[in-house]
Specification:
about 65% helix, elongated, DUF2474
């Protein structure tokens, strides 16, 4: 199930199962956290001490 299948219109097509909703939330939160940590680490390498 692609994320574009879930985020359409006003949410009528959102999954009805709570487990699927929580799963998507955890996946998106984890990926955004990982992207933030990666960007912060990259900036840390660029800025001289």
């Amino acid at each position: 199930m692609a994320i574009t299948d879930i985020v359409q219109g006003n949410g009528d097509g959102a999954p009805k199962r709570t487990g699927a909703r929580v799963g998507w939330f955890v996946v998106i939160w984890s990926l955004s956290t990982a992207a933030f940590i990666a960007a912060a680490s990259f900036l840390h390498l660029l800025i001289p001490k």
